[in-house]
Write a sequence for this structure.
């Protein structure tokens, strides 16, 4: 997903993608980030305990923890709530 | 909650898609209309200066045609940019069929918000360009339909070419109406999505709290 996104939207994207172990390259490609910002986002999520680093052979993969579920569920409900009201744009 | 959110999101995307398609069609019509008048005026200009024929070109018509052609090109390019993003979202939504998982719906909503953020200024410009395009095509229709115009102390007199006036008037009226309707729908769409961006900003405090950013 590209385009102008908020940090919260990027966190959500990373956490949802990392439900299964993912490589750093896979994450930055999927979330359309450059490696510098990708590292910053991942470092933050690892520090807060939303993602853990898993060693697979000589590779490091990132996996979302159970705590991530709380954030992703809240995020989804807030965004879907935008469409709770009757359609506001209609022809 | 998910079902109704999905139905509403789908409906909004479909309606906005129709508005952008209508915009592309009418932008192309305004551009073509402007170019055809420019070509006609260029021929008149050539005949006025290079042959013995007494043909006069109209600088006013030429100017309006030029503005219409340029507005049409700008209108077309901006419409296409907005259209591409909406089309991709609409195609992905349709590709999922009737059953759209929560996560996929949230992703599409995020994509639409992101697309709107990227094109916010463009959509605002489009509201103005649509209005200008409509006004230009209407003026062009009136100017081309006039066969003779004279302003004197006694008043204003003009004659119109009956063969030209009906198709021109119908075309220009149609384009003007569609432009104004587009402008209206674009402003409504922009207002709705601006409100949504505000709502998202308000709920960011909760997300921030959940992510424990304050305790960082």
């Amino acid at each position: 997903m590209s385009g102008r996104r908020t940090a919260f939207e990027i966190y959500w994207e990373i956490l949802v993608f990392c439900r299964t172990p993912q490589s750093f390259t896979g994450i930055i490609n999927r979330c359309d980030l450059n490696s510098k910002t990708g590292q910053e986002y991942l470092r933050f999520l690892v520090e807060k305990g939303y993602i853990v680093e898993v060693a697979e052979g000589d590779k490091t993969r990132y996996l979302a923890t159970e705590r991530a579920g709380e954030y992703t569920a809240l995020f989804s409900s807030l965004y879907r709530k935008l469409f709770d009201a009757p359609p506001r744009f209609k022809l | 909650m998910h079902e109704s959110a999905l139905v509403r999101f789908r409906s909004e995307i479909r309606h906005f898609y129709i508005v952008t398609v209508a915009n592309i069609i009418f932008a192309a019509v305004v551009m073509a209309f402007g170019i055809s008048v420019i070509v006609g005026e260029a021929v008149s200009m050539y005949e006025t200066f290079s042959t013995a024929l007494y043909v006069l070109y109209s600088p006013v018509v030429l100017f309006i045609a030029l503005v219409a052609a340029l507005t049409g090109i700008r209108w077309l390019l901006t419409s296409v940019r907005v259209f591409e993003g909406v089309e991709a979202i609409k195609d992905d939504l349709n590709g999922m069929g009737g059953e759209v998982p929560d996560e996929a719906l949230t992703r599409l909503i995020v994509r639409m918000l992101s697309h709107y953020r990227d094109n916010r200024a463009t959509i605002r410009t489009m509201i103005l360009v649509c209005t200008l395009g409509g006004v230009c095509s209407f003026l062009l229709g009136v100017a081309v339909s006039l066969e003779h115009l004279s302003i004197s102390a006694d008043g204003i007199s003009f004659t119109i070419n009956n063969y030209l006036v009906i198709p021109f008037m119908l075309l220009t009226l149609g384009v003007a109406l569609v432009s104004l309707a587009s402008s209206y729908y674009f402003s409504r769409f922009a207002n709705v999505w601006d409100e949504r961006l505000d709502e998202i900003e308000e709920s960011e405090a909760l997300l921030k709290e959940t992510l424990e950013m304050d305790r960082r």
Observations:
- The beta strands of chain A are 51-56, 59-64.
